[in-house]
Amino acid sequence: MKKHEDKVVIVTGAAQGLGFACVERFLSDGSKVFMVDLQKDKLDELVERLGDRVSAYACDLSEISSALAADIVAKAVAVFGRVDVLVNNAGIMATADFVDFPEDVFDRTQRINVKAAFLIGQAVARQMIKQGQGGAIVNMSSVNANLAIPTAVAYAVSKGAMKQLTAVMGVSLIPHGIRVNAVGPGTILTELVTKSVMGNDQARRNLLARTPIGRCGEPAEVASVVSFLASDDASYMVGQTIYPDGGRMIVNYTVPVID
């Protein structure tokens, strides 16, 4: 029997990057996946390609509200009958000098990265409590919950909030058998990172000099941690953030970069 056989999983930010890696992993683990993303064309293509074990909901999480969160969950239940796992992955990142960082971008980042996780998590938890069989919620944090990037104030603040949201959700929901944990990746080779950081030799060297394992991570490596946290193998883990980061969080020096 597969690890997540016949479970129903909601993944936000599911059309690409870490979100899509999670979709692929849960499908391989035997799940049915309800994908949430802004990119309707990509979602339609994925539903066509992946078949009847996936369904999708296109919406803009920068416009998140309790009503929208409830509608996401209601549509997942209408298609698949229940919800067993939520992966709160949707997130954005923008950069600017701290003194010039735009207020509207800061607010939008918090709505997508934090408020959406809170409201969708709340709606999913209500559904899981109604079902009476527990469940698992995995939030996507980042090493930047702890490490500062001077030009990414909104992102760093949102991921710090995600770490604490995970802890509060964890202790609040465990009496209902709902385990909440988070994953805090280092630099992962998503489409965005590949085009930006890895396309700039100096940026690449600066990054790898602080990564003892000597390489960036692959999306599938993060998805495997998400799958673990959602499974019974992590049955005694509550409110924790795990950091698949190649050693970045523990290093206090630079390491040689292999060209």
TrEMBL record:
NCBIfam families: PRK07231.1. It comes from Caballeronia udeis. One of its GO terms (molecular function) is glucose 1-dehydrogenase [NAD(P)+] activity. Belongs to the short-chain dehydrogenases/reductases (SDR) family. The lineage of its organism: Bacteria, Pseudomonadati, Pseudomonadota, Betaproteobacteria, Burkholderiales. PROSITE patterns: ADH_SHORT, PROKAR_LIPOPROTEIN. The keyword Oxidoreductase applies. Pfam families: adh_short_C2 (PF13561). Signal peptide: none annotated. CDD domains: SDR_c. Its EC number is 1.1.1.47. The keyword Oxidoreductase applies. It is an enzyme of class 1 (oxidoreductase). This is Glucose 1-dehydrogenase. It comes from the Bacteria. Keywords: Oxidoreductase.
